[in-house]
Amino acid sequence: MLRLPPFTYLAPKSLAEAVTMLADHGPGAMVVAGGTDLFPNLKRRQFDASVLVGLRSLGELAGVRGDAAGGFTVGAGTTLTDLSEQPVIREHFPALATAAGLVSTPQLRNMGTIGGNICLDTRCNYYNQSYEWRRAIGFCMKRDGDICLVAPGSPKCWAVSSSDTAPVLWSLGARVRLAGPKGERVIPIEALYQDDGIDYLAKARDEIVTEILLPRPAGVRSIYLKLRRRGSFDFPVLGAAVALTMDNGTVREARIVLGAVASQPREATDAARLLQGQRLTPELIEKAADRAATPAKPLDNTDLLYSYRKKMARVFVNRALRALAGLPPRHGGE
Question: How far, in Å, CA of 240 to CA of 155, rounded?
Answer without folding.
Answer: 28
